[in-house]
Amino acid sequence: QKTIAKIATCLELRSAALQSTQSQDEFKLEDLKKLEPILKNILTYNKEFPFDVQPVPLRKILAPGEEEHLEFEEDDEEGGAGAGSPDPFPPRVPGTLLPRLPSEPGMTLLTINIEKIGLKDAGQCIDPYITVSVKDLNGIDLTPVQDTPVALRKEDTYVHFNVDIEIQKHIERLTKGAAIFFEFKHYKPKKKFTSTKCFAFMEMDEIKPGAIVIELYKKPTDFKRKKLQLLTKKPLYLHLHQTLHKE
């Protein structure tokens, strides 16, 4: 388990190096290749690990809907203190964002900038990120699911992301009734797993250039949009900015 956790750290370092704008690679491809024999002999490997890295904490990430069957403390959405002073997050783990699709004549691509999310306990969220998916009316994925990197910072009652999501299908090719979902997730140390705190979604008639704020709903995520419950009566929203690209 320790070796696998260290390999996970190396993969994160390599991913960070690939996404970095700096010229020097902190973790090179040649370094990554040194892990191959370890992976091939993972059950019998007993030599010293080739890199001095700390293992990634073993975290359980639950499948959609799984967490609702666990016992957990219900968040008191109507009370509680604010988040307090600005508090930078620890080193960020890169997400699984995908590049923009090639343009096609007469077809429209959508970039969504996730600016920030308003939460009463924003300052207490650990390693928060947002999972973005595009679903049809039956909750079936129409595009690959993407995770943002861990948030940039938390400030007052906001968690700030400022990250672009490239929707992986031309708007004209999305089925009628499709929606784009945003699931806000954070790590719970006591439970040792990553949990969905709330979700929001945007329907096709809301796709238009410019800023938009959308309401937050209680978990579990209802991809079929049948039993929606607002997270809170307070005016807290997910703040987005849309850019349309058309040839």
UniProtKB/TrEMBL annotation:
Protein's GO biological process: determination of ventral identity
Name the coiled-coil region(s). none
Chain positions covered by the region annotation Disordered: 69-96
Q: Name one GO cellular component term.
A: membrane
| Keyword Lipoprotein (UniProt) | no
Q: What superkingdom heads the lineage?
A: Eukaryota
Identify the keywords attached in UniProt to this record, alphabetized: Developmental protein
Belongs to which family?
Belongs to the AIDA family.
Q: What does this protein do?
A: Acts as a ventralizing factor during embryogenesis. Inhibits axin-mediated JNK activation by binding axin and disrupting axin homodimerization. This in turn antagonizes a Wnt/beta-catenin-independent dorsalization pathway activated by AXIN/JNK-signaling.
The protein here is known as AIDA protein
| Species of provenance | Piprites chloris
